[in-house]
Design the sequence.
């Protein structure tokens, strides 16, 4: 999120780390938590588009994960998007939410930085060389040091 725009991005992979679908978008409330929840909502919608029924949602927002696990109530500004997510969860056989460090969420961050003026745009591989490089590092389980 910057002064001029806020974006979302996400990537949907199979259990081998292969990209099935990716998305980027913008718009909505200028709140980091709202954008994180909106990205999760778009990821769930994308998962349904490719007929995934068992998914794991990884987010670098611990607060978003806690809200969706029912450990924390959403602020009123995020109540609608949270309700939309919970309604969509009924469409899946299995969904789990995990918190990941930002360093391991680089693909989604990169996609968010590419946000267009569209609400959300879904696309399938081939990916840009930068995004493909990030995906390949993730598949190799690259270790990132935190200081």
Sequence:
């Amino acid at each position: 999120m910057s002064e001029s725009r806020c974006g979302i991005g996400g990537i949907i992979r199979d259990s081998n780390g292969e990209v099935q679908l990716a998305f980027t978008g913008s718009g909505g409330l200028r709140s980091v938590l709202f954008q994180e929840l909106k990205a999760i909502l778009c990821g769930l919608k994308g998962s349904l588009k490719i007929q995934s029924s068992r998914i794991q949602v990884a987010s670098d927002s611990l607060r978003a994960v806690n809200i969706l696990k029912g450990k924390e109530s959403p602020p009123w500004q995020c109540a609608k998007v949270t309700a939309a997510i919970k309604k969509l969860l009924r469409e899946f056989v299995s969904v789990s939410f995990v918190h990941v460090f930002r360093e391991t969420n680089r693909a989604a961050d990169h996609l968010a930085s590419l946000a267009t003026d569209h609400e959300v745009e879904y696309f399938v591989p081939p990916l840009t060389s930068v995004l493909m490089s990030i995906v390949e590092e993730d598949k190799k389980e690259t270790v990132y040091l935190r200081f």
Observations:
- The beta strands are 7-13, 19-26, 54-59, 94-99, 120-123.
- The longest strand covers residues 19-26.
- The domain at 7-139 is CATH 3.30.420.10 (Nucleotidyltransferase; domain 5).
